[in-house]
C-alpha cells in the first residue's frame, strides 16, 4: 500500500517537472585565438517553454562555462633554514582551466546541496581532489588557495545575479572569456531550478582554437620540435642583431 502511494505521488509529480524546458542559443560557438586576441564575450540567451501554466514558486537560472580540465599538483612553500622550499602537496585529479558560474540569485538560495553534488555546479564541486601528501593534512586549504589565485587571475568567476530573467520566461547572460584561454572545447551548461531543485538542463559547446601564426607555431612545436627550436634560435639571433644595429645607429 505504501509503495503504491509513493508510486502514485511520483507519477503525479513527473508531469509538473516536465512542464518546463530550455530553448537556448549563443552569440557564437567558436572563438579564434590570434596574435591580437585580448579576450572575448559570449552572450548566452534563451527562453523557457511550457506545456502548462508556470508554478507559483520562483524560477531560477544557472549558467556555467567550463574550460578543458587538467590534473595538477598544488604545493605549499615553507621557510626552512632561511630557504623557501616545497613542504606539502595535494594532487588534484581534474581542475578546469576556466570556470564561470552565473546565476539569477545567490547560489545558496537557488540550489540545494544534493543537486549541486549531482550536477557539479559550484567551484568546490567541479574541482576534484584525489590525494594529498600525508603531512598536508586537510586538502581543503590547498583547494581554497588555488581558487583564490585563479579568481584573482580572472580564470574562475562566480557571477551571482548576472543572469537577467524577464517575466519568468526570457533569460540572458554575458560571459567574458579572458585572453589567457586554453585551447579546446568549453562546455556550457544551463540549468532551470525551482525551490533549489534542477527541473531541466541543457548542454552546449564552444570551440576555442589558435589560428594563423599562433596555430602554425603551436603545431610546429608539437610535430617538429627540432625545427621549432632552430626557428626560435634564429629569431633570437635576429632580434639581437637588430637591437645591436639600432644602438650603433643611435650612437652615430
From TrEMBL:
Residues making up the signal peptide according to the UniProt record: 1-18
Superkingdom: Bacteria
- Pfam families, per the entry: Alph_Pro_TM
Kindly list the residue ranges recorded as spanning the membrane: 226-250
Keywords for this protein: Membrane, Signal, Transmembrane, Transmembrane helix
- Keyword Transmembrane helix attached: yes
Q: What is this protein called?
A: TIGR02186 family protein
Which species is listed as the source?
A: Fuscovulum ytuae
Amino acid at each position: 500500500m505504501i509503495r503504491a502511494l509513493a508510486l502514485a505521488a511520483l507519477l503525479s509529480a513527473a508531469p509538473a517537472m516536465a512542464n518546463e524546458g530550455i530553448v537556448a542559443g549563443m552569440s557564437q560557438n567558436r572563438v579564434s585565438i590570434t596574435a591580437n586576441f585580448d579576450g572575448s564575450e559570449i552572450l548566452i540567451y534563451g527562453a523557457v517553454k511550457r506545456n502548462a501554466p508556470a508554478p507559483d514558486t520562483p524560477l531560477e537560472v544557472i549558467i556555467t562555462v567550463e574550460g578543458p580540465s587538467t590534473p595538477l599538483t598544488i604545493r605549499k612553500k615553507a621557510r626552512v633554514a632561511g630557504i623557501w622550499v616545497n613542504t606539502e602537496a595535494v594532487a588534484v585529479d581534474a581542475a578546469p582551466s576556466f570556470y564561470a558560474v552565473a546565476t539569477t540569485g545567490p547560489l545558496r538560495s537557488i540550489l540545494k546541496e544534493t543537486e549541486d553534488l549531482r550536477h557539479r555546479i559550484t567551484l568546490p564541486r567541479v574541482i576534484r581532489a584525489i590525494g594529498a601528501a600525508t603531512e598536508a593534512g586537510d586538502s581543503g586549504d590547498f583547494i581554497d588557495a588555488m581558487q583564490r589565485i585563479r579568481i584573482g587571475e580572472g580564470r574562475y568567476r562566480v557571477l551571482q545575479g548576472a543572469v537577467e530573467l524577464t517575466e519568468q520566461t526570457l533569460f540572458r547572460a554575458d560571459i567574458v572569456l579572458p585572453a589567457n584561454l586554453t585551447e579546446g572545447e568549453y562546455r556550457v551548461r544551463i540549468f532551470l531550478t525551482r525551490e533549489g531543485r534542477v527541473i531541466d538542463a541543457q548542454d552546449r559547446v564552444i570551440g576555442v582554437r589558435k589560428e594563423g601564426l599562433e596555430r602554425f607555431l603551436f603545431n610546429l612545436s608539437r610535430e617538429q620540435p627540432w625545427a621549432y627550436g632552430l626557428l626560435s634560435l634564429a629569431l633570437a639571433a635576429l632580434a639581437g642583431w637588430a637591437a645591436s644595429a639600432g644602438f650603433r645607429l643611435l650612437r652615430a
